[in-house]
Amino acid sequence: MIRTPICDLLGIEHPICLGGMGTGTSPELVSAVSNAGGLGALGCHGLRPEQVDERTQAFAGKPTSLSGATFFCSMCGRTVSPPPSSCGPR
């Protein structure tokens, strides 16, 4: 078995991390990675708040915990001053 300092830092068994990959992940995939001893992250880019809530609630009451959720915020190359107070659809 491979053990690296990242395993200790993140509290995982194997140095395997599932990237959020936007909406290419699902609660089932995150659970599979976490159950195998890796770090699972749920991609939430492009989801509405109620969809994020629905996906994260899928972990409630299950032995697998959600390690994290990822969001991608982009200003599409625009310069904004001052920075926006929130990141969301424009």
Task: Name a few traits of the molecule.
single chain; 90 residues; two-stranded parallel sheet; 3 helices
Question: What do these coordinates show?
Answer:
By secondary structure, the chain is of the alpha+beta class. The chain has one domain (5-70). 27% of the residues lie in helices and 7% in strands. The protein has three helices and two strands; from the N terminus they run ααβαβ. It has helices at residues 5-10, 27-35, 49-57, and strands at residues 41-43, 68-70. A two-stranded parallel ribbon has the order 1-2. The chain is globular, with a radius of gyration of 16 Å.
Distance between the termini: 47 Å
Number of helices: 3
Shape: globular
**Global Rg:** 16 Å
Low-confidence segments = 82-90
Element-by-element helix/strand order: HHEHE
Mean of residue pLDDT? 74
Given the helix and strand composition, which structural class is it? alpha+beta
Helix content: 25-40%
Order of strands, main sheet, comes to 1-2
Architecture blueprint of SSEs:
Elements (H helix, E strand, L loop, with lengths): L4 H6 L16 H9 L5 E3 L5 H9 L10 E3 L20
Parallel strand pairs: 1-2
Gist of the model:
The chain is of the alpha+beta class. The protein has helices at 5-10, 27-35, 49-57, and strands at 41-43, 68-70.
